[in-house]
Amino acid sequence: MTYIITEPCVDLKDKSCVEVCPVDCIIGADEDRMLFIDPDECIDCGACVDPCPVDAIFAEEDVPDQWAAYTPINKDYFKDKDGARQALNELKPPAA
Q1: Backbone dihedral angles phi then psi of residue 50, each to the nearest 5 degrees
Q2: pTM exceeding 0.90
Q3: Going from the N-terminus, what domains does the chain have, and what CATH number goes with each?
């Protein structure tokens, strides 16, 4: 199990979760529209959940159905950043 960051983080990128992560597994480059949790580094502690001001972080098995598409995007980011960014933009196009 890992934690997944979902749609409420898109275009917000509040980094409260980054500050509390004990293993520094939450990543977001300047060009990213949201933050991502590295599934190979996450220790499933849940420390990131409560500090998130928009309730965007869920245990993988608890991701709401309407945001299920963010699970593969989150995982794919660590294998193919450009592909994950494209999938995110298709799922939630940037504001004009």
Answers
A1: -65, -35
A2: yes
A3: 3-91 (3.30.70.20)
